Hints:
Largest sheet: 6 strands, mixed
Number of strands: 21
Structural class: alpha+beta
CATH superfamily of the largest domain: Hypothetical protein af1432
CATH topology of the largest domain: Hypothetical protein af1432
CATH class of the largest domain: Mainly Alpha
Amino acid sequence: MADPNFLNKDTGDAIIIPADHPESKLSQAITYLKKSEIQDVYRAYHYAFECHIDQKRRSGEPYITHPVSVACIAANLHLDGPSIIAALLHDVVEDTPATLKEVESKFGKQVAKLVDGLSKLDKLNFNDVVDAQAENFRKMLLAMSSDIRVMIIKLCDRTHNMQTLEHLNEQKIKRIAQETVDIYAPIANRLGLNRIYQDLENLCFKHIHPLRHQTITKAIASARGNRKEVVEKILIEVEAKLKKEKIKAEILGREKQPASIHKKMAEKNLGFSEISDIYAFRIIVEDIKDCYHALGVLHSLYKPIPGRFKDYIAIPKANGYQSLHTTLFGPFGMPLEIQIRTLLMNNLAEAGVAAHWMYKTKENQVTRLQQDTNQWLKRLLEIQSDSADSLEFLEHLKVDLFPDEVYVFSPKGKIFVLPKGSTAVDYAYAVHTDVGNSCFVCKINNELVPLRTEVKTGDHIEIITGPMAKPNPSWLNFVITGKARSQIRAFMKKAESSDLVILGYSILNKALKAFHIEPDSIKKKHWDKLLHDYHLKNKDEILIDIALGKRVNIMVAHQLSSIVSGQSSVGRQEKFLDVISIKGSEGMAIDLADCCHPIPGDPILGYIDKDRGLIIHTHECNEIKKIKVDPEKWVDVEWEPNPDRLFKVKLDILVSNERGVLAKIASVIAEMESNIDKLTTEESDGGGFTSIHFLIEVKSRIHLADIIRNLRKIEQVSRITRFKLGTIK
């Protein structure tokens, strides 16, 4: 087969290339470019070919096949000429003697800047160290913010790498696939690059869970044969009905991807046989009016399932996606998922931010999508500059990348998209930082509500601000958006230390009074004892931590009350009347909390529950923050010196998949005079590691530490974590 799209750089004559040659594949992909741009791409191809001439991929193929494939994926998005050239050259600076200055001299500053951004991204080495991964997130954001094309090309690069993973070793396959599903796929989704997002999600599912992918793929193939006639009947009926109503439409039927079906099975705890809607239909019409007309026609043809209609045309998703979604009862009770959209909406749904290059249009949707994306990147940059460290930034970024969205309205009708679980304060900061910093009253649907109220889709929200209002550190206990958390912390950090000390005193004094302790009774010797216990130099550090929400006022008040009580005239040896000693074998009246599983040696606090009696929590238990301060319900408790029983504690142990490892772990636990009460394993699905959840019995923290120390000596043990939240599965 001949392909005349490339021109000889010297003569300008058409060059005949075999159809399976990389040049031919590239030339077929870039026919949308101008003639001059095609010639530039041709020069870049030859330059990349020469740079990589002695290199091969793990598969044994010439290395040039990789940059050509990346360029073809980018060309499918109709990216501009410089982007295609950068895709061809994205590895030359990193992997060959070529320099950035040389690339600039041959292809211009714009291409050199894109190649430089891609080279920096390629230097990111994601690993299991959380700090390093968090710092890499920062670098990636900077690359995205400088030119969004850098991230689009990088996503094309990652897509081809995922398509050719089978030539790597199993451990590396798992690592790259997990990195992709955690980082790159969500970014593709957020940028509206639906094709790439679906490809990455499905490829990740295939490599992380190969057995599940294989099983679901076979089940889909089997179901396809069983339902072929039903699907054809639906297509004929829908087409006839729309034609009768004079609606011009293109009707497409498609199978859901294995990754999508698996996600639904996991979310709803269903087996494949219970997933009946593995087919979806897309109806593409001429304009928005026809979208709603077609919706009415379909609802008259098949009965809609209540609660399964979503209007993303009136309220688009954060990534610009627009469509009508409805689910209908089809023939024989088969549920039908239907999407109705215009051609432009369909193009935007497939290409996202790349639609700027793919579809030369002045339509508002493209402009708005670009603006929304720029706002998102700007917001992340603000969060990054306000975050104290990489881990804090990572915490904020993950909320932005993995949101279940809610849509709310301002008083003027402007739509704001927030992550599910957002509060009125999150909304206030979404409007503007100054609005968040000065909010003190909120109205939702014309009713006054607390600022901590969770907002829901459709809510009309009005924030009332005041000149004397300022952020409250307690807001950090309920806000969830990265911007709100970072701005509240930034405000607190910028406040005068004296103000924070005063605020900390005020918050602490309320908790002290709940424990029947007058603030004036806390003397210097009491503070000195607390500072010694906390390994701090002055009490202002404690008060500032309380003001910033880093320490729980209940905990500090409890410890101060214990110190004051211990130094009373009664003497430290004679226990204060309100102190209860805990052995752990008291019976139903005293209960060790399941959320934190306290064991002897853990600092503890008692809380009186009217139904369960006295509940013992550790000082660091997150559940304590949720319990209202009530002086009648808090009890000072401590452990008996020698408890007469064993205590249950949860351990998560990550091990490499090798024969006999479970027996080794069980042997060590037995040798340490501990019992295994329960254990479960998390299915590895052919991976290199398995997570084993143990519920074991120990005498104390020291006993537990000895057990963990000996378990770490087992070669196959990768990580051991004491699990303090939730229940063992």
